[in-house]
């Protein structure tokens, strides 16, 4: 069965610093990959997605992610973090068959001013 | 644009009580799903539907029932609430199987 691992439960960065959130997946073929963000008390919002083609994908709010097949990874990056980026981030993988989207356990981002 | 609307926002139940969490979407999406979110466990799929009249079980379906009589609505029923069902519940819709999910703002349920 497919799985998604987000190894960092909590990350703290200073405002203006760069950010990388890690995501690894387990699946035999190329999956569809997503990053979602959840602000406190809110539902999840899509940041970006990868289906095929260019392995570097751009998303909203200045985020990007790079798909690396050899490492089974889909890490999320942002060059300069803003205080409003403090939230929880979820990586998810869709591998087909009905509506089977598997989420990672999330990474909580704290931004220090 | 309402998107996905969930009601209620908060609910407290006693063990053994039943209730229905409501979910409605106005985007004419065929796919709808229910997730529960628990600390350290991410989101886990409870039930999903690929169209009116069609539902299927997800990863953690026990204790929950769903039906999909219209494209817009996808209610989640707890037949006999248990403390293990204390969680935050999210409803989501999507246009197709691999399309991005559109989430509601969640229902925080506490079972005492």
Structure, explained:
- The complex is a heterodimer of chains A (113) and B (112).
- Chain A has strands spanning 3-5, 10-14, 19-21, 24-26, 32-38, 44-50, 56-58, 64-68, 73-78, 87-94, 101-103, 107-112.
- Chain A is mainly beta.
- In chain A, strands 2, 5, 6, 10, 11 and 12 form a 6-stranded mixed beta sheet that branches.
- Chain A starts with a strand and ends with a strand.
- The mean pLDDT of chain A is 91.
- With 112 residues, chain B is mostly beta strands.
- In chain B, 0% of the residues lie in helices and 52% in strands.
- In chain B, strands 2, 4, 5, 6, 9, 10 and 11 form a 7-stranded mixed beta sheet that branches. Chain B has a 4-stranded antiparallel beta sheet with strand order 1-3-8-7, with no helix packed on it.
- The N and C termini of chain B lie far apart (36 Å).
- The interface between A and B is medium-sized, with 24 and 26 residues.
Structural class of chain A: mainly beta
Question: Largest sheet of chain A, if any?
Answer: 6 strands, mixed
Tally of DSSP helical segments of chain B: 0
Can you write the helix and strand succession of chain B as a string? EEEEEEEEEEE
The secondary structure category of chain B is mainly beta
Overall 3D shape of chain B: globular
Helix content of chain B: under 10%
Radius of gyration of chain A: 13 Å
Instruction: Report the strand count of chain B.
Output: 11
Mean pLDDT score of chain A, rounded?
91
Query: Multimeric state of these chains?
Result: heterodimer
């Amino acid at each position: 069965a497919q799985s998604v691992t987000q190894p960092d439960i909590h990350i703290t960065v200073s405002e203006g610093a760069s950010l990388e959130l890690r995501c690894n997946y387990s699946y035999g073929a190329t999956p569809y990959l997503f990053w979602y963000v959840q602000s406190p008390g809110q539902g999840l919002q899509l940041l970006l997605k990868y289906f095929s083609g260019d392995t570097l994908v751009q998303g909203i709010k200045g985020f990007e992610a790079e798909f690396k097949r050899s490492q089974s990874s889909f890490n999320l990056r942002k060059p300069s973090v803003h205080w409003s980026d403090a939230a929880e981030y979820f990586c998810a993988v869709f591998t087909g068959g009905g509506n089977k989207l598997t989420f990672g356990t999330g990474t909580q981002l704290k931004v220090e001013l | 644009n309402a998107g996905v609307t969930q009601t209620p926002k908060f609910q407290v139940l006693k063990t053994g009580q039943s209730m229905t969490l409501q979910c409605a979407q106005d985007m004419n999406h065929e796919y709808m799903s229910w997730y529960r979110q628990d600390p350290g466990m991410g989101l886990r799929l409870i039930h999903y539907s690929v169209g009116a009249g069609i539902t299927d079980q997800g990863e953690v379906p026990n204790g929950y029932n769903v039906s999909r009589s219209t494209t817009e609505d996808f209610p989640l029923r707890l037949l006999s609430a248990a403390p293990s069902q204390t969680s935050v519940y999210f409803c989501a819709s999507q246009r197709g199987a691999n399309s991005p999910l559109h989430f509601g703002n969640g229902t925080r349920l506490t079972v005492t």
